[in-house]
Write a structure and sequence with these properties.
Layout lengths: L2 E4 L5 E8 L8 E8 L2 E10 L2 H20 L7 H22 L7 E9 L4 E6 L3 E6 L2 E5 L5 H7 L5 H6 L10 E2 L7 E5 L6 E5 L1 H4 L4 H8 L5 H18 L7 E8 L11 H53 L6 H47 L11 H17 L5 H25 L5 H13 L7 E4 L2 E7 L1 H19 L2
Antiparallel strand pairs: 1-2, 2-12, 3-4, 4-5, 5-6, 5-9, 6-10, 7-8, 7-11, 11-12, 13-14
Amino acid sequence: MVTAFTSHIIPLQGVGNSMQGGRPENQDDWGCMDTPLGFLLVVCDGMGGGPGGKTASYIAKNTLMAVLQGCNAHTSRIEAMKMAVSKANDALYQKMDESPQLKGMGSTLVAVLINQQSAVIAHLGDSRCYRISHGRVAHRTDDHSLVGELVRNNALTEEQARTSPQSNVIMRGLGNTSNHTAEITEVPYQKGDRFFVCTDGVWGVMPHEQLVQRLTSQQTLSDLVDNLSAEIDQIGFSTGGHHDNHTLAAIEMNTDSILKDKMSKILKIALAVLTALLVVSIVFNIVCSAKLSALPKMAELEKKNQELESNMALYQNVKDGDTKELITKVEVLRYEKELLEESQATLISKIDSLEKKLTELQQKASDNTQSKPQAAKSGATAQELAQRAINLLAEMEKAKGSTWPEAAKKKAEYRTKIVEQLLMLDKKTGGKFNSRIAAINRELKSTDPLTDKVAVNPKNKNEYISTGPAKDKIQQLSKKIQEIKKQL
């Protein structure tokens, strides 16, 4: 059911809705409130299965809201958000210590804190925030996931990432992840702008272009959120009814922020090119004008030159005894000739300089309009990718730490790297081994002994190492990858 909300400290209106989808329970959670630092909207998506996911999202949301509610109004919003996220992560670990059955739980988080200055967005994981301005996506958070990283490295397209079986491998989040640091961004807004925050159950159900069409529609916020939630359920139930929980909340701003939008890089380049072309045009006109204005002057100079040459010739024919008056006249004419020649040389120099400047500007404009970025290329062969995965498995087997969490964390980091290599191997081989690679990845992801089952080293009581079952499973997976490598 769609819930409407507003703020008493800043002009905005909003709605939110959370749906269970096709899952046994809803592990998403969301909330909003006025705080001393601005209006807060937060959405969390629990991870860990069973009661863990639902508990994690609830704790993360409530802790973030409580910390920000208790902040001083003069506190930096960015620093306050960092502190609130850290406190939320601490709260999850404290709960896991108190309740061992919740071990391994975690949560994504996306939050928007808005005041008159701007909107501060914090996120971890693959829950997203979109800013819609003038019918387009003006800002979107980047997913902290394995496939999100591959998209940024041009190893996968956004659509391939959305439909990948590894799309839920989270690289940064609260609780059971190796990175708990939020990515925080400050963005401006204008009157009429809308902020949408959602879990992956929303953006993962349809192609990006289709979702953007829904988010940029002219419907009221209430109708948009209600209709999109219903459409997601319809798509999910029509394809088996196992679709994810989906939560969507939206804010519409009724004022402009003090912070203003920066000019985009593309617009800057376009203006630079237009400016260069304008300068070229102006210089070209100046050169042409100078040439046209110089022509009569050049003709006049040439005429006087001829007259001077004629008089000089006359002077040469005058004998030594001729009148002093004629000699003086010729001397004056000689001086005038030198002045005219100097003026003629100055005009020619100025025209040459202008023509040179025109050539330089034309070349610069051509460089600006024709240069294109070169796409990054990956040089790793399929054989190399497979061997990297095998080597990482061997390192994973040897991983150890001075405490159980440290050892488990190191093994989890190796698992993430192995999955990444296998996904790139799948892409490099054109999907030839897709089913086998997907099966290996599922085992890597779902088999607890690989990361969680560590024990005290009999030879060193201060070390935790892999258990026997974990080593056996790692060796089995290594053999499967070796079999694929032999067929490459």
